[in-house]
């Protein structure tokens, strides 16, 4: 069977072609590549240009159907929220740095000790909003407003993650789980990922540096944000990250194929990681 059908079942309608291709089971050992002249002999097309144009319409139709199907996945909104959150972090940090540099330029005696820390920025912005120029005050208020919006969005991400990826959220928290899925591209991609890849998501720079120069390999990436990893003793942190990554991949598969919390799995996974940390002390 060719993409336009065979026998009496022939058509160049994009929807019919797409449906036919999805159900076709072609034996590639006997497959003969299609020649546009065959379609011309059947009266489907007038010439080669017509054949190519018809084939393009069919493939574009299938692409549109695929995109529409992807947009209906349950993790689409969550991924967009996480990416928005990360973009807001970037914008807030950049604007804060710029505003502080600006404030220092007209206040040379100002201490730089607050720079580079979130706590410092939290103290500086209200101060600049009170003592800076009128333009500085407006920008400081805008940054503070955006920070509040960012905090609310973070809570919303955590809340939705619990329903979309319940098992991953139960292991590492909603925000970290959502960031892991966001970096993999989708929950489906996370479910097909090996644990070793999950372990170093977010540490791509260090990984490629390790491959190119032989520098020490990264032990963790985004997973470091979770307390079980960053609170673990330095000498066992890699072991904890590896074990947790393996459990996260299983959790991603449960979330993708079942879509509901498996409390027994979560309890056993947490217990195993706790035993590992205790054994390494």
UniProtKB/TrEMBL annotation:
Domain Nop: 164-278
Entry GO CC: box C/D methylation guide snoRNP complex
Coiled-coil residue windows: none
InterPro entries (UniProt xref): Helix_hairpin_bin_sf, Nop56/Nop58, Nop_C, Nop_dom, Nop_dom_sf
GO molecular function, one term: snoRNA binding
One Pfam family linked to the record: Nop
Top-level taxon of origin: Archaea
Record's protein name: Nop domain-containing protein
Protein's organism: Methanorbis rubei
């Amino acid at each position: 069977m060719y993409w336009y059908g065979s026998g009496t079942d022939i058509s160049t309608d994009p929807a019919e072609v797409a449906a036919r291709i999805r159900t076709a089971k072609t034996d590639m050992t006997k497959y003969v590549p299609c020649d546009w002249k065959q379609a011309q002999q059947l009266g489907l097309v007038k010439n080669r240009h017509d054949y190519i144009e018809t084939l393009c319409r069919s493939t574009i139709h299938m692409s549109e159907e695929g995109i529409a199907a992807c947009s209906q996945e349950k993790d689409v909104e969550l991924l967009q929220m996480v990416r928005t959150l990360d973009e807001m972090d970037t914008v807030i940090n950049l604007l804060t740095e710029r505003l502080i540099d600006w404030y220092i330029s007209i206040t040379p005696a100002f201490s730089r000790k607050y720079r580079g820390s979130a706590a410092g920025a939290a103290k500086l912005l209200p101060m600049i909003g009170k003592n800076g120029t009128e333009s500085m005050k407006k920008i400081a208020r805008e940054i503070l407003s955006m920070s509040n919006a960012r905090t609310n969005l973070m809570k919303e991400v955590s809340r939705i993650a619990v329903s979309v990826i319940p098992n991953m959220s139960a292991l590492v928290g909603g925000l970290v789980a959502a960031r892991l899925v966001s970096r993999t591209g989708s929950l489906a991609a996370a479910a097909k990922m090996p644990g070793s890849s999950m372990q170093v998501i977010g540490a791509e720079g260090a990984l490629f540096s390790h491959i190119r120069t032989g520098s020490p390999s990264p032990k963790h990436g985004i997973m470091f944000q979770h307390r079980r990893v960053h609170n673990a003793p330095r000498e066992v942190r890699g072991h904890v990250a590896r074990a947790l990554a393996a459990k996260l991949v299983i959790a991603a598969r449960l979330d993708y194929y079942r879509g509901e919390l498996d409390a027994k799995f979560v309890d056993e996974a947490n217990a195993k990681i706790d035993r590992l940390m205790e054994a390494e002390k």
